[in-house]
Amino acid sequence: MDIPSMFLLLSGVLVVHLSDSKAVDRFYADQAIKDDGNTIVSRGGMFKLGFFSPGKSKYRYVGIWYNKISVCTPVWVANMETPIVDKTGVFILTHQGNLVILADGGSTKIWSSNSISLTMINPVVRILDTGNLVLWDNSSTNNQNLIWQSFDYPSDTLIAGMKLGMDLRTGLERCLTSWKSPDDPSKGQYVDCVDTNGYPQVFGKKGDVLQWRIGPWNGIGSSGLPSDAPNPFYTMEFVVNHEEIYYKFELKTSIIHHIHLTWDGKILQMQWIERLQQWIVYADVGVDSFNHYGVCGPYGSHNINRRPLCGCLRGFKPRLPDEWEASDWSGGCQRKRPLDCTSGDGFWKISGVKLPDTRHSWYNVSMTLGECEMACRRNCNCTAYANLDIRGSGCLLWFDELMDIREYDVKHNLYIRMAASELAGKLISQSSYKEKKGVLAGVLSITSAMLLVMFAVMYACKKKIPYIKRRGIWDALNKKNSIIQIEDTDDLPFFSLYEIAKATKNFSIDNKIGEGGFGPVYKGVLEDGREVAVKRLSESSVQGLDEFKNEIMCIARLQHRNLVKILGYCIHGNELILIYEYMANKSLDSFLFDETRSSMLDWPCRFQIIHGMARAILYLHQDSRLQIIHRDLKAGNILLDADMNPKISDFGLARKFFGSDDTFTKTKKVVGTYGYISPEYAVHGKFSTKSDVFSFGVLVLEIVSGKKNRGFSHEDHSDNLLGHAWRLYKENRSIELMSESLRDSYIISEVLRTIYVGLLCVQHHPEDRPTMMSVVLMLISEGVLPEPKQPAFFTGESHGGVQPVASSGEYMITQLIAR
């Protein structure tokens, strides 16, 4: 008997037809919905689940639709890509908690929720009055043990309470996907998602082509969607935190209202009118046929009521005048007069616009407009700023050309950086008089504080505090511009050695929390109460000024939730000190390779760490402005915050790269940590983004196994961890690589998938390794993975037999790294 035919038997499901005598809103593992008109209905009667045929189609699908209206309007479809050709379908729940659609009398599996859990006791499926189909473990007394829900897998409709965005803990992305046609719910050409780069915003794409963009959240709605303004029908909500980023709406009344992505790419807000017995369009996000992304190019402004549609912002002129005359505005505009940051630029305020694309932006929710202006003024790369909230709070900074500006009747001000000469003597701040008074008061306060610090330093000198000698103190206080201005990071705070010594209790051994290649790391507490990690260059370190400058240049310009944040620096004579945010749980290796503490890392926690690392490396390689190869990814450089979220640290060896992911750079000096270095780098000095991919793969296998690659030993062979993982994979025993401490928390399919991704990353040849974009997708998707090839540094030893990978030189470096 083949697997599909055995499915019902092996799952332990006794298919019992649900009774039609009364409406029910749930079913259990011994029940099923057959395609004979049998359905379940939410308790309040709002939604129904069962089999249906969309439009003129004769194919059958399992879906959810409105129960209280006369027009069949599906809001969710399970088997979108795999319809059933007749009415032999059955929708069942297995005892392992897996929802399955079968056809042909149960011999063919059509669709599965892939929610199998070996710990399920009493699974139950229920349709809620929100339209959400939820799978619970009913052994919980309060029914809160949620296993799976349809809201996590939207189709083409967003209903009240459903989230559009990303779960940062699991990597689950919730997007709207259009149908292929009104009669075919399989995936069409259009997808609407929340882009989480910079300040999150909603994009609409046709295939890989960006079609349109809703402006960023302005506190009460989207800056590019007037219909999001307060109204009597619904409220919009936007949430950004370390766990989730999403948009959703909630209804204020009993109206029936949803957002629908049509098969031809329109996104419509639909409202059911009972009196007319039909749907009406409450709002059309597209607004008009010219609402395409960036139609007017950089620094161009789009106005549907103007002819021509595009114009340049004040102080700008068409970059390609001939094309503009031919109504091709894609080249955009350029400045009439160049900026001159050293002599002082100003800002010009424009109102009533959809804010520009925020993918290359930075934001802070608590800064005032005056503080926002000062932050932008201090950074010569800042091109514009605005309040996050139109009610007057928060700060949003842009660091690239301003794209996709459109003129709307919205109350949002944008302040664009302009050359002082362009403003013709009107170089004034755009912030309010009240905020100017606040800035002036702040300056006076800072001046007073500096005087107090100077007196304190003089007092400290008299007391002869170690590490702070009189000679060079004033140089330390005045050296802020010596390196930082060279690297164009004037906005990075400078700390005096006195402040750092005081925060760390004079670099007390009791405050020491670790040591790396750069030098010792101390915990400190600043005068404002902030806990910090202080990294001090050691006299014996092989690193020095170059690594110090490189760390500042790289990490100060990077903004990602999984990268450690640098708070400032100190230069005093031979003292080079970096100040970071404090990570309560120190580094990953302090947990992973400790027999006692490793038990604190269950499988969900380890998978969260792996996924967070992957997203951060993807950001470094592709999404950041600098595009960086880290070159020293290892467990000791993965820090963990209080919630065990990973943050990549130590950018002293990082390098920028130009070109594609496979573009190599060669160096005579191989740096990094043995056990994590890729073979092409270790042997030939060639590095690329695929070098980081290799290091990431090593980390993945270490996290799953709880074993170090370097120094790994096994009684049956002499391979390192990579070779051991490869042997187990070839023998279909990969699950044996998993640490014993995970036996009570693992999800077998997730663990196996993670191991396979790790093996793909450590393949010998860099061209075989996936990009980090592919890695992120493979970790969270359910598609078929490619077969990995032999990993690097696999000796093939077995009881004394040695088979080198390639040349003898490579074999020697193999042995060195394996040890």
Structural notes for this entry:
It is a single chain. The chain is α+β, with helices and mostly antiparallel strands. The strands form 13 sheets. A 5-stranded antiparallel β-sheet has the order 29-35-32-33-31, with helices on one face. A 5-stranded antiparallel β-sheet has the order 36-37-38-40-39, with helices on both faces. It has a 4-stranded antiparallel β-sheet with strand order 1-10-11-12, with no helix packed on it. A hairpin with an 8-residue loop joins strand 4 and strand 5. Helix 12 runs antiparallel to helix 14. The N terminus and C terminus are likely disordered.
Task: Describe what is shown at a glance.
This protein is 21% helix and 26% strand.
Number of helices: 16
The amount of helix comes to: 10-25%
Looking at CATH, which topology of the largest domain would you report?
A: Transferase(Phosphotransferase), domain 1
* C-alpha geometry: globular
How much β-strand is present in the residues?
A: 25-35%
Terminal CA distance reads: 49 Å
| CATH class descriptor name of the largest domain | Mainly Alpha
> Runs with pLDDT <50, length 5+?
1-14, 425-437, 459-489, 794-819
As a whole number of angstroms, the C-alpha radius of gyration is 30 Å
Mean pLDDT: 81
Q: How many domain regions? A: 6
| Sheet with most strands | 5 strands, antiparallel
Overall CATH architecture of the largest domain: Orthogonal Bundle
Strand order of the largest sheet: 29-35-32-33-31
> Can you identify the CATH superfamily of the largest domain?
Transferase(Phosphotransferase) domain 1
Structural category is alpha+beta
Q: How many strand segments?
A: 46
